[in-house]
């Protein structure tokens, strides 16, 4: 089996109205393999995330393309880390990889740090950290260099607008999606909708009184790095905009999750030694939550994975709220690059707001089930046969 790693810088649902958790796993795999009308998604992210790729595939969705964009990772690292995941899971021959946005619309490294001097330093600065160093070079991997990610996104949406509208999943900066909208405004009408990771609200107290780690968790870097793009995207007239926001910080590893993965694999030693379980090992590590928590970097939330999970299985959402939303795009503001929300009847009228749905809570146990099931599949034959098989340990 191929080697793989969860190449992140930080760190099923057959098509039916019946909730996925009523299906035995064998039926889920069969339904995935036989689905002729799989839902379709185009993924843009600023750093690779293994479950974000695996969860839609296990759900029976088709990934029409993945683009790596500048943000938490440098441009080359974002594209490169996605290439690593696709290659190690033998998905590179059927999941196209593109280069997304290489830089934000307006914000630059210089203006980013000037703003910090005026209004406060962020704990996590992404690829604009003065200590950031690239992990990849462009010679380390291959991708589709002939087609920009924004154009690939447009073409995917146009191709299926009448038969099976494409969902856009953006888990990094909104720059690539904004590029696509500026080139082809009909994108928002022809796509099925938009799911994003980001959009934290009511986090000032955590910024001021929390530890540096807590401050880091609630820093909305995906929007902060390109506020203008985020405002364009989040106020566009999509059929629906679903935002992860605060709920994604609430879903973290736990001892129960460790125990479930260890039991599924047949023991911690199997996880630590099996090349195909490297990603699982990066989650469970010692297998002991207390030992792992000595370093906060070992217990980061499941951010992008949470949004991917409720995108393909909305049944796990237990509460959501519809609000009007806008992004502060005033450079001379301490809230530059953060979202502001209102009830629809009291939203401002002097500038544009978007109609969005914020997911407030999910069923954590069902999310864990999705995550574990997606991890413990063999994707080796997906591109050649269109089928998955459960790993047998």
TrEMBL record:
Pfam families: IU_nuc_hydro. Keywords: Glycosidase, Hydrolase. This is Nucleoside hydrolase. GO terms for biological process: purine nucleoside catabolic process. One of its GO terms (cellular component) is cytosol. GO terms for molecular function: purine nucleosidase activity. PANTHER family: INOSINE-URIDINE PREFERRING NUCLEOSIDE HYDROLASE (PTHR12304), INOSINE_URIDINE-PREFERRING NUCLEOSIDE HYDROLASE DOMAIN-CONTAINING PROTEIN (PTHR12304:SF25). Residues 52-369 form the Inosine/uridine-preferring nucleoside hydrolase domain. Belongs to the IUNH family. InterPro entries: Inosine/uridine_hydrolase_dom (IPR001910), IUNH (IPR023186), Ribo_hydro-like (IPR036452).
């Amino acid at each position: 089996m191929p080697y793989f790693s969860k190449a992140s810088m930080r760190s099923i649902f057959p098509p039916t109205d019946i909730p996925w958790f009523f299906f035995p796993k064998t039926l889920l795999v069969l339904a995935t393999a036989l689905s002729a009308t799989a839902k379709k998604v185009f993924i843009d992210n600023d750093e690779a995330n293994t479950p974000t790729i695996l969860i839609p595939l296990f759900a029976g969705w088709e990934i029409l393309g993945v683009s790596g964009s500048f943000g938490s990772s440098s441009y080359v690292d974002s594209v490169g880390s996605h290439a690593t995941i696709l290659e190690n899971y033998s998905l590179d021959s059927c999941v196209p990889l593109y280069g997304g946005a290489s830089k934000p619309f307006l914000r630059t490294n210089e203006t980013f740090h000037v703003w910090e001097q005026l209004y406060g330093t962020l704990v996590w600065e992404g690829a604009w950290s003065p200590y950031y160093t690239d992990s990849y070079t462009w010679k380390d991997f291959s991708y589709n260099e002939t087609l920009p990610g924004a154009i690939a996104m447009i073409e995917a949406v146009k191709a299926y607008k009448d038969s099976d509208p494409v969902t856009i999943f953006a888990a990094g900066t909104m720059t690539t999606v904004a590029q696509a909208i500026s080139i082809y405004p009909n994108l928002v009408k022809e796509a099925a909708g938009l799911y994003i990771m980001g959009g934290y609200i009511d986090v000032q107290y955590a910024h001021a009184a929390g530890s540096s780690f807590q401050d880091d968790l609630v820093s909305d870097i995906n929007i902060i790095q390109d506020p203008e793009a985020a405002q364009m995207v989040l106020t566009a007239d999509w059929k629906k905009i679903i935002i992860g926001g605060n709920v994604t910080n609430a879903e973290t590893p736990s001892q129960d999750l460790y125990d479930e993965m260890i039991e599924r694999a047949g023991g911690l030693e199997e996880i630590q030694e099996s090349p195909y379980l490297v990603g699982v090992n990066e989650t469970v590590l010692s297998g002991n939550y207390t030992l792992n928590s000595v370093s906060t970097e070992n217990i980061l939330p499941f951010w992008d994975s949470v949004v991917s999970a409720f995108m393909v299985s909305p049944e796990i959402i237990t509460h959501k709220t519809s609000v009007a939303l806008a992004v502060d795009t005033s450079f001379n503001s301490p809230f530059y690059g953060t979202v502001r929300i209102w009830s629809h009847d009291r939203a401002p009228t002097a500038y544009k707001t978007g109609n969005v749905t914020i997911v407030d809570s999910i069923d954590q146990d069902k999310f864990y089930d999705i995550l574990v099931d997606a991890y413990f599949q063999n994707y080796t034959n997906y591109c050649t046969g269109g089928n998955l098989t459960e790993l047998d340990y």
